Amino acid sequence: MPAPVMSMDTRHTRTTMRATTIRITPITVISATTVTTMAMIIMIITTTTMAVTGITTAIPMLMTTNNAPPPAASVAMTESETAALYRLMSWLSPSFPVGGFSYSSGIEWAVEAGDIRDAASLKDWLAAMLTDGSGFCDGVFLAHAHRAATDHDARALRDVVELAAAFVPSRERQLETTSQGRAFIEIARTAWDCDGLSHALAQCDGAIVYPVAVGIVSAAHAIRLAPTLFAFLHALVSNWISAGSRLIPLGQTDSQRVLAAFEEIVSATADRAVHASLDDLGAATFRADLASLRHETQYTRLFRS
C-alpha cells in the first residue's frame, strides 16, 4: 500500500516538532544536571567558606587569649595601696601586741549569766554591741579622729580624745580601751614611725582610747578612712568572737560561721559611722554595759574585762 502523501505543511510541522523535541530534551537534562551540580558546588563552597571562616576566627581568638593584657581586676596595686593594706593587716592582726586577747568586753559575764549559750546567741549579742553599742561609737570616734589628724585640726582632735575617754561606761572597759590605745601608739612610734605622727600625738591631752589611736596613726600614714574603719571593725568583731569561742566554747567552724555572718553588718556599720556626727553618738545596749560592770566582781574570770 503506497505511503500516504503528506502535504508540505504537515511534513514541515512534524519535522519542526521532531527537531524541537531533539533540541528540548538535551536542554532539560543538561539543566537538571547543571542545577544539581551547581547546588553541590554551592554547598561545597559554603561549607569550605564556613570552615575557613571558623579557622580564621579561631586563630585571632587563640592569639587574643595568649597575648591579651590582664583584666583590670588583676592589675597590680599601686605602691601606696600596697603599703596601706600591709600596715592595716599588721596593725589590726591578732598578733599585733596590744593585748586584745585578754579582754572580752563583758562577754565573759554574759556567758556566765546565760545570755550567751551558743553560736546563735553569740551572734545576736555581738550584732547589738556592734550596731547599737560600743562598736558603732568606737567607729564614730575613729572617723572623727582620722579627719582631725588629716586636717591638722588640733582643737578638734583634742575634743575627740577627751569625749572618747569620757564615753566609756565602766572601769574595766576604760582599762581595756586605754591600755590598748597606749600599746598601739607605743608600738606604732617604735616600729612604724612616720612624719607628723609625733606632732599629732603631741596635740592630745590625756589618755587616748584604742579607736582614736588607730585613727590618728592611720591618718599620719596617709591611709584612707574607709578601709581603716572597715578593718578596725572587722578586728573588733574577730576579737569578740575569739573570746566567745573560748568561753562557750565554740569550735573553729562555728566561730567562722559567726564571723562570715558579720560581713554585711560590719560594712553597714562602717558606712553609718563614717557619715555620723558626734551628735549621733549613743548606745542602746544597757545589758552589755551592765555585763561590763558586773564583770568587775565576777568570782572566776579568764579575761580582764
What is the assigned CATH homologous superfamily of the largest domain? Answer: Urease accessory protein UreF
CATH topology term of the largest domain: Urease accessory protein UreF
Q: Any idea what the shape is? A: globular
Q: Beta fraction of the residues? A: under 5%
- CATH class descriptor name of the largest domain: Mainly Alpha
> Count the strands?
0
Average pLDDT taken over every residue: 83
Distance between the termini: 143 Å
What is the name of the CATH architecture of the largest domain?
A: Orthogonal Bundle
Compute the number of helices.
Answer: 13
Helix content: over 70%
Sheet/helix structural class: mainly alpha
Radius of gyration, in angstroms, nearest whole number? 41 Å
Our count of domains comes out at 2
Describe this structure in words.
This protein is an all-alpha fold and 305 residues long. It has two domains: 7-68; 79-297, Orthogonal Bundle (Urease accessory protein UreF), CATH 1.10.4190.10. It has 13 helices and no strands. The protein has helices spanning 8-67, 79-91, 107-113, 119-132, 134-150, 154-166, 171-191, 197-202, 210-220, 225-247, 252-261, 263-275, 286-294. Helix 10 (225-247) runs antiparallel to helix 11. It is globular, with a radius of gyration of 41 Å.
